[in-house]
Design a protein that fits this description.
Length: about 950
Amino acid sequence: MSETNSAAEVAAPHRYTAAMAADIEARWQDFWDAEGTYEAPNPSGDLAGDAALVAKPKKFIMDMFPYPSGSGLHVGHPLGYIATDVYARHQRMTGHNVLHTLGFDAFGLPAEQHAVATGTHPRVSTEAAMDNMKQQLRRLGLGHDKRRSFATIDPDYHKWTQWIFLQIFNSWYDKEADRARPIEELVAQFESGRRTTPDARPWSELTAEDRADVLGEYRLAYASEAPVNWAPGLGTVLANEEVTADGRSERGNFPVFKAKLRQWNMRITAYSDRLLDDLDGLDWPEAIKLQQRNWIGRSEGARVDFAVEYHSPVGTGSDRITVFTTRQDTLFGATYMVLAPEHELLAKIVPAAWPEGTHEVWTGGHATPAEAVDAYRAQAAAKSDVERQAEAKDKTGVFTGVYATNPVSGEQVPVFIADYVLMGYGTGAIMAVPAHDSRDFAFARAFELPMRCVVEPTDGRGTDAAEWDDAFVTYDAKIVNSTGEQISLDGLGVVDAKAKITEWLSAQGIGEGTVNYRLRDWLFSRQRYWGEPFPIVYDENGTAHALPASMLPLELPEVEDYSPRTFEPTDADTKPETPLSRNEDWVNVTLDLGLGDGPKQYRRETNTMPNWAGSCWYELRYLDPHNSEKLVDPAIEQYWMGPREGMPHGGVDLYVGGAEHAVLHLLYARFWSKVLFDLGHVSSSEPFHKLYNQGMIQAFVYRDGRGIAVPAAEVEERDGAYYFQGEKVSRVLGKMGKSLKNAVTPDEISAEYGTDTLRLYEMAMGPLDVSRPWDTRAVVGQYRLLQRLWRNVVDETTGEVTVVDSEPAEDTLRALHKAIDGVGQDLAGLRFNTAIAKITELNNHLTKVGGPVSRSVAERLVLLVAPLAPHVAEELWRKLGHTDSVVHQDFPVADQAYVVDETVTCVVQIKGKVKARLEISPSIGDEELEKLALGDPAVVAALGGAGIRKVIVRAPKLVNIVPA
């Protein structure tokens, strides 16, 4: 502290300072905790019996789950937390029952990596990080209902995560009813014969293993052996959403490969249409909705079967290659086919030798088709999906040695494999129409394959595709060269041709109109330790059995080594080995599952759930956090989240978090919510009604000549350049973080200025949804606002309240009520920066007027400030003589008579140039305003007797005169 500041504080011992702020803030935080100020009541049971509570409007406000980092918070982290707190406080003051709390998403990779490095159990480091974060959050003065807080690692919480998994495992999607139903209802259909088994055998004749296999094809949670994203460098598989655009792991940046492994999946694809359609009823940013729509990727087209006969080492026979296409109108133009390298048909159709006359370019230089296919499959496995789909100049592939029959022309077309076709989309096979698809065109050129124009070009290039430089792709042209023995499409437009060919395919039994989706089922297994164990055991036949609810929670065992076995990042030919598999005493267990066969030996599932599991349903636990008998009490869930006017699907009233969760978390949570809704556990079919994405607080990163970040706090600015320890450094705006050495902790700012100053600064930096740079030097502006506010109520020398009981002057009343009106609207609309500007304007008005402030003005000013700076507001409210907390006071209501200006300025223009300004009533009509404008001496002089062709009036602000 400088000598000047010390002297000032001696002269004004009751000035608002950082030390005073610290004292005020600590006292009121203790008071709020002791009094349960932020505790939101739940309905006690039947909603009809809680008429008074139900009559009061409710507001459920949530932040996205924080992960308790060991490094704690920097000032960028609390932006959303402070914003929701301000909004929640305003909602309480406008009569709402507000539920606002915060828990911790505590399973996950960082704690496990720390455990691997240090030997510290993940629970120990995670709980220590949570304790530190709780202290930091408390210091921010956040009005959370702490009774409702929890962590996903709490056994009482992940018991219900496991229970929900079992609900999903024990359910199937009934397409006729368009909803999930209990698996027992499906079994009843098989038993009664209403639904036939895949091989038409009666259900009673199936073995237990056969029945399990049949049900596995329907269950919403199922284990299957399928291509997955395998990251050897991490030792685990990843969901599609966890793989970056360049085909690497989101965590660790390791290469990701395709491997075939048995893993747990969630059948999220069953909900594709509902996940799309229900977006329309949500109040979400359009950009987020668009990302979800694109990720689900609904496309309408047709399924088409191409017959194929084969003579291979495994036998002779016939089969079909099924493709999905959105351009079935171009079927006559299909001159070859391509299978994904992983396609299952390759195991039986590849012949022992090349057919006579096979083009040399097609063989890849291999002696046999089997050699060519095996070599190419190995080559494709080393690439990510992104690399395979990239618009590479050179297309690669090999001929399988097999031909298929084009169903409309009867032509024999060669079947290739190529890495630009993926098993994860459509059927893993395509009909190639090179004249009208750019990738097919490039492949056909590379392999000297024929091209047939079947969509008439409109750009004058002619119909000889061999002469073209690229494919002709359009939906607005006529079909040509498309007549066969049974059907002709020539002369039709694309839409009509698609309809006609689809009808024909269906009539022939070789295809049908269908819908395809980009969305894949959610890979739900992780080869990790620090996650929820699956409540699944396997019998001696490998059949999966669900643990009964009475055995939940299933907790993690102790292990000596927390890390999965990792491999060289480029070693794709490896398989996961999980930490849990090393604890034999836990894996092999004797249990009585209540199946009527007594205690038996079982083997536990040794994968764990992904870190997304706990965040798929946490909004429900906030509602009823201590319920040990039910997931959530139905009346409580209906009260807080049930559908109502303007919220057709129900859900949380306001959910605030980063836009980076547009697909992963939000899509998964929506899926779980819909399953729980279908099964009757909740009344809300969507988890979050309104979503708001806050921006990011950025900071300058300073780097030396080596490109290494240097401590930002130690950088000096001289003549527009930046220096660290005498050496010049570069400066760029980027993220804030410990590794970039530019992190500023909220504790630092609170210690120097007080928490209320920090809150005001973060809210005043700019619009909440826009990223903004942090500038510690600018924090002092909000600190001075609070000092002036304090000074307008409290004498800095004596500490006495200086307000008077006299009525304020009219100009002060107008300034007050304009502020009340504007601040109230801004807080309700999450426009906190403009709300602070209006408060500052009012406070400056009071300072400028001078003299004691009227009590009625001071009290309402304190109430305006309360949502934003709650500690100083509580202190001033108490000093103004009130004994109750400011938190539940009514927010001031503006008197509209003072909000509307007595006069407004009207601009009068002639030929677009201002000639006069009139002070008029804001309620003046067009006719009266026109008369005043034409009679104004300055306007009369400017017209100089000229006639008037037209007068445009926009009362009360503008009159535009057009002379004749």
